[in-house]
Design goal:
alpha+beta; L-amino peptidase D-ALA esterase/amidase; Ubiquitin-like (UB roll); 2 domains; eight-stranded mixed beta sheet; seven-stranded mixed beta sheet; 28% strand; globular
Length: 399
């Protein structure tokens, strides 16, 4: 990938292999430490079945005293009952201890197989090993990004540095996600780090709409997971008073950019995907309407397989919009595919189907734009196509 962004001041990271995963070449535990107390905010899965780390983190965020985050991959610690909760608490305690913090000053994330207990002896060894490797160099950031992956084919890292009130502020994030990806977050983890000074209230207030507009606007298979978590940590090492007013707005813009880049990378890395599909829905009375329509199109197996086959089968797209549960006038609906108008004001438009198919086949990015002509609300949504490789990956994942 391109050059990695800088690690925000006052944060140290490491990723190690602790044998949760069978492959010794794949790190499976990441430790992140803030040298001083950090404000923390979180957004979590909307599934009713939630993993133990989600329960723990919900209880501890928002906060202004977080020092450590520990993340394991290969085991979700989900549907593991009281033992799973004890294991999550123990992970937090161990991470806090090696970072010189109190047990309640650590957060936990897990991802992987559901319904299996964590090998806590290996997790403890991993935390101890990661503690001595903590650093703020690009290699440390990369190892941390690798330690949270499951079926991902690449790391997801993004960053921005901005000037706010005469001080340089850095926002850097890592994420994972490739399958079991659906709206309202999915089998994805995101960790956003910044040296900006933030109050807990401001951090939570800024994070929630950004997650709604980025991580909640992706889908690979429409399956909302048990472990979805996005955490924002701000330790204030950039100096100055907590951000407010236009400075907070400008910070939010940078955080949105990082989050959008990570969300798009997750959709692009969808299991077995050969296309990244960007769906723009515009001209709706309400944003919720636009989201519902985009989600219906994104999750349609017929739309996704048509894109996989480079087939400009626009009837699948407009019919998916039609069953989204949103009332609209079909006579106002228009559709563009890769910039080519193929359906306008409820009527088919002549186009060169062979040329459009070639364009789709030879470009990984496919753009769908639906315009309803009934309002000002719009949304951008990312998904991937559906291939036979997705079936193979998920048929073989556990067995």
């Amino acid at each position: 990938m391109s050059q990695l962004p800088p690690v925000p001041e006052g944060f140290l990271l490491a990723g190690v292999h602790c044998r949760i995963k069978r492959d010794p070449q794949k790190p499976d535990l990441t430790l992140v430490m803030s040298e001083g107390p950090a404000t923390a905010a979180g957004c979590y899965t909307q599934n009713q079945i939630v993993a133990a780390p989600v329960i723990l983190d919900r209880q501890r965020t928002p906060s202004e005293s977080i020092r450590a985050v520990v993340i394991n991959s290969g085991n979700a610690n989900a549907c593991t009952g009281e033992r799973g909760m004890r294991d999550a608490e123990k992970m937090a305690e161990l991470a806090a201890m090696v970072c010189g913090a109190q047990a309640e000053e650590a957060l936990v994330m897990s991802t992987g197989i559901i319904g299996e207990f964590l090998p806590m002896d290996l997790v403890e060894q991993g935390i101890t090993s990661a503690a001595v490797k903590l650093g703020n160099k690009p290699a440390s950031l990369e190892s941390a990004a690798r330690g949270i992956l499951t079926t991902d084919t690449c790391i997801k890292v993004a960053g921005r540095t901005v000037e706010l009130a005469g001080r340089k502020v850095t926002v850097t994030g890592i994420a994972k996600g490739s399958g079991m990806i659906g709206p309202n977050m999915s089998t994805m983890l995101g960790l956003l780090l910044t040296d900006a000074p933030l109050t807990a209230d401001a951090a939570q207030r800024v994070l929630e709409p950004i997650v709604a507009d980025t991580f909640n606007c992706i889908s690979v298979d429409g399956h909302t997971s048990t472990n979805d978590t996005v955490l924002l940590l701000g330790n204030g090492e950039a100096g100055g008073d907590p951000l407010g007013g236009s400075d907070l707005d400008n910070f939010a813009d940078a955080l949105h950019g990082v989050s959008a880049e990570l969300a798009r990378a997750i959709a692009a890395d969808g299991e077995g995907a050969t296309h990244l599909i960007t769906i723009e829905v515009a001209g709706c009375p309400r944003r919720d309407d636009a989201v519902a329509i985009a989600r219906a199109v994104a999750n349609s197996p017929l739309v996704k397989t048509a894109i996989a086959g480079a087939d400009p089968n626009w009837g699948r797209i407009v019919s998916a919009a039609g069953y989204a549960g949103v009332a609209f006038d079909p006579a106002r609906l228009s559709l563009e595919l890769n910039g080519v108008m193929i359906f306008k004001a409820g009527t088919p438009v002549e186009f060169d189907a062979a040329a459009l198919s070639r364009d789709m086949r030879h470009n990984r990015d496919v753009a769908i734009r639906l315009h309803f002509g009934e309002g000002e609300a719009s949304v951008r949504f990312w998904t991937s196509d559906l291939t036979a490789e997705y079936v193979r990956i998920n048929a073989d994942y556990h067995t």
